[in-house]
Amino acid sequence: MARSTSLSRRLLLGAGVFIALALIVATVAIGFVLRHFVQSQIDQRLDTQIIFLSSVVKSAGGSRIAISGATDGPPFDRPGRGWYWQIIGPANTLRSQALDGADIALPNMPPKPPKPPPRPPRLEDVTLDGVRPADGRASDGMPLHFRVFETLAGDIPITIIASAPRAAVFVPLRIAMTTLAVSLLILGAALVLAMIFQVRLGLRPLETLRRSIVDVRNGASERLPEDQPREVAPLVSELNALLAENAANLDRARAHVANLAHGLKTPLATLSLALTGRKHGADDQQEAAQLVALMERRIRHHLGRARMAALSGPARVRTPLAQRLRDIVDAMQKIHAGKAIAATTDIDPSLAIACEQQDFDEMAGNLVDNAFKWTQSRITMRAVASGPMIQLTIEDDGPGLSDADIAKVVQPGTRLDESAPGFGFGLPIARELAELYGGGLVIAKAKGGGLAATLTLPRAGVT
Known about the structure:
The chain is an alpha+beta fold and about 475 residues long. The chain folds into three domains: about 10-170; about 240-310; about 320-460, Histidine kinase-like ATPase, C-terminal domain (Heat Shock Protein 90, 2-Layer Sandwich), CATH 3.30.565.10. Helix content is about 50%, strand content about 15%. The chain has a five-stranded antiparallel β-sheet. Strand 6 (about 145-155) and strand 7 (about 155-165) form a beta hairpin. Helix 3 runs antiparallel to helix 4, helix 5 crosses helix 6 (about 355-375) and helix 6 (about 355-375) packs antiparallel against helix 8 (about 425-435).
């Protein structure tokens, strides 16, 4: 059993997955941008402090260095907060009051020899092309982010270090990301609701079309409304064309049935009078036989026209040839199990005929049954495609027929062997059915003796 699917479920699932992926990507991208922005703000503040320190550090004689003026402005004036600075010289080290005499423990960093400036550095001349970032911990274990700059105080090489707590980056980032996540969740929920509304609105014409089809089936309407959305309009046009075709076929079939009823009315009345009359001589019997033959011809004529009317539309039937013939042969082998018959087939499994299955079973069943009745030991079946038609040939190695008998055998009611069961209508019915489908039936002598019956029928899928 095929698993049922839902268009709305497909659309909602696909759009939901897309929205979820888009929100995840947006969260990651915005988080990366925010982190970079916050980190750059912290680095800019540390670099400003380094520039200020490099402008106030002086040589104090020998290899010692000193600072003139106040250097511990906010936030570097708060002990234990992680905002520290430190200047390392050859003979002494200067540090912020927030360090309380402790030193900043830097991770191992390879030294970078500075280029001596042409003159003592001033605030407007200091550049931080050689600044290096680093991460480490304070003496109390607090995670810190460092900015390290190596320069000269006069002719004394110094290393200026400024630090900020990692929390200065993560806390604002966490607050911003929490707000962002809540906002994106609200946005996602709004998009899902909008998507549900859009899917229902978009599929509403299909529900309207379903109700219109129910009206047609219940007889409340003969056609589907033509006023449809552009995407559904071609389907509605095809359905209306199919309804019109079916209605026309039904009208033709009704007309043929009515013609058949009128055509049989008079012969039946005459036959009734002939059979209920006082005399039942040879003339009455001959007249009755003529009336029966007349009714038989009219029945075949009107039923044939009715079948052709039903088949006048586009072919919608497809019967696999090899499979149906194999089923018929299997059934015949069981019926004629007392005879040792070798039945072989040479048919491409892809061949199919544009013929109702029950009609093919009736035609092929008659031909295969005759072959099994009269064959000695062998039956050969083969099929070839010839343009839009397929020719099915069934051969047996039986006694065969003369040319005169071959012409008689396709006449209704003709039986060449009265001892064999049957009424003599099998081959005529097979021929008439084949002709109704635009094909035919040819009976001929087989090359190796016996009889060869060639049934021609239209090929499915070929116009």
